[in-house]
Amino acid sequence: MQIELLDTFLDLVESRSFHRTAEQLGLTQSTVSARVQALEAALGARLFSRSRAGTALTTEGLRFETHARLMRQEWNEARRAVASSGEAALTLRLGIQQDIAAAFVGALVADLRQEFPQTAFYIEPDYSAQMCADLSSGAQDFALMFSPKQHPDLYFASVGDIPYRLISTDAKTRQQINLATYIMGHFSPAFEQTHRRVLPELVGVPLSVGQSSTISTLLQSLGGTGFVMAAQASRMVASGGFNYVDDVEVIHQPIYAAMHLRHRTSKAHRMLVKIGQKTIKAGAIR
Question: Alpha carbon of 124 to those of 87, 170, 248: distances in Å?
Answer without folding.
Answer: 25, 36, 34
